[in-house]
Specification:
With 290 residues, this protein is mainly beta. It is 8% helix and 50% strand. Strands 1-2-3-7-8-9-10-11-12-13-14-15 form a twelve-stranded antiparallel β-barrel. Strands 4-5 form a two-stranded antiparallel ribbon. A hairpin with a 7-residue loop joins β1 (35-47) and β2.
Length: 290
């Protein structure tokens, strides 16, 4: 298939950038040892998603990330999911990670869960009662293609593969592999911090879900209020991931709080703008880097 060839090309370019020596005059390589990070979070969302009933969900991701050099990072996310109904949802923003105040946080923090209804698993025998269990495991690869300079932003292309480990009968997943590629950008202007991210996801095809490939995006601004606290305002959205969903759009308030040199809190609250987004949500994660 055509998208398979595009994915292979993206992987080849990605690896070539990850292990090349810096050559751009705008790139500066920071001095830092090999690093790793681990984070544990809990994220809540509630909404009708354009249906006649409310679905509440809790997304608890455990994320481990390792950086073998100053450019390259690899991470794995193992989530636990609870839903108040068997509506099949997609955790759209958990496949991406917007840049925060430090490299460790950008690699280890959660993407921020945001669900969209893809269908209902009742056709396969599941009831409408609450369900819970292991979600889809996500493997990510990231590379800093350009370090931030006086005028240039930091650019970090990344790609991911989602493994179908979640139960389809309980409505916790579609039972298909997903692949995605994107890039995030970050630039500081004094204490002002601008971030942006775009991601394209190829979804596996499953009967009854009406799955579509989709583009998700994030744009935001933060301000370094103190040495350890950065509040942020963000807009997050996506094109329709399914024929059962419309486009997504929501606003978020976020706070990055560095407790120590190695420990960070990431908190956010969200308000849905589009009908297919959650009506409201929030989350908290603890990130430890070493």
């Amino acid at each position: 298939m055509k998208w398979n060839y595009l994915l292979y090309i993206a992987v080849a370019l990605f690896l070539a950038i990850a292990f090349r020596e810096p050559v751009s005059a705008l790139s500066t390589t920071p001095d830092k040892p090999q690093t790793a990070s681990i984070s544990l979070g809990a994220e809540f969302a509630s909404g009708t998603y354009g249906t006649d009933s409310t679905t509440r969900s809790v997304y608890v991701p455990l994320i481990a990330t390792w950086s073998p050099n100053e450019r390259f990072d690899v991470g794995i996310e193992v989530p636990f999911i609870y839903q108040s109904s068997s509506n099949v949802t997609s955790s759209l923003y958990s496949t991406s990670q917007s840049t925060t105040t430090t490299t460790a946080a950008a690699k280890g923090g959660p993407g921020g869960n945001s669900a969209a209804i893809l269908g209902n698993s009742s056709a396969s025998g599941s009831s409408s009662s609450d369900v819970s269990g292991l979600g889809d495991i996500i493997l990510r690869l990231g590379v800093i293609a350009l370090f931030e300079g006086d005028k240039a932003p930091q650019l970090r292309p990344s790609l991911f593969v989602k493994f179908p480990t979640a139960s389809t009968s309980d409505g916790l997943g579609t039972g298909e592999f997903d692949f995605g590629v994107g890039v995030d950008a970050s630039k500081w202007y004094g204490d002002l911090h601008l971030i942006g991210e775009g991601f394209y996801t190829w979804q596996g095809k499953a009967d009854g879900f009406g799955l579509k490939n989709y583009f998700s995006y994030t744009a935001g601004v933060g301000y370094q209020l103190t040495k350890s606290v950065e509040p942020m305002l963000l807009v997050k959205g996506a094109t329709a991931p399914s024929s059962y969903s419309g486009d997504l759009l929501e606003a978020r308030a976020r706070v990055i709080w560095s407790l120590t040199d190695t420990t960070m809190l990431d908190l956010y609250g969200s308000l849905g703008i589009a009908d297919s987004s959650p009506d409201y949500g929030g989350g908290l994660s603890v990130i430890y880097s070493f």
